[in-house]
């Protein structure tokens, strides 16, 4: 079940980067420049859902998020839920461990990109996911990632995720598997 840890490590925060060039709004929750995109947590109370699985209640936001993780080489998350959303999208949609690990605080006890990529590669490309993120306190989230593989196999990963804001970005600092 070592791969399960890597799968559930698909929740991390963003390292801070400075953008270059003019930024512009590209859709719900994001701002982009040629080298950086900014993804913001949704406003308002309540849980956040993100993913490409049928029934995930996030279709419009997910299209924007897919464009963000496929676009500029860097994504800066603003808010804990945003960091979690971007990490999961990098993992499941972009299938890019480098993008995913870039969202992790450097000191976090989370595998390096090579280990994360091995986890990504162990999951069929047609796998869909839905992440439910519930704020418990400032910087602390209850997270469930429901994964459905093309053969119908379903997995549910439950986690408690901690985030911290640093240098105009949100970083995931810890993942506790429940």
TrEMBL record:
Low complexity: bias regions: 25-51
Region annotation Disordered: where it falls in the sequence: 21-55
InterPro entries listed in its UniProt record: DUF8176
Positions of the DUF8176 domain: 66-176
Any single Pfam family the record assigns to this protein: DUF8176
UniProt-recorded name of the protein: DUF8176 domain-containing protein
Origin species: Nocardia terrae
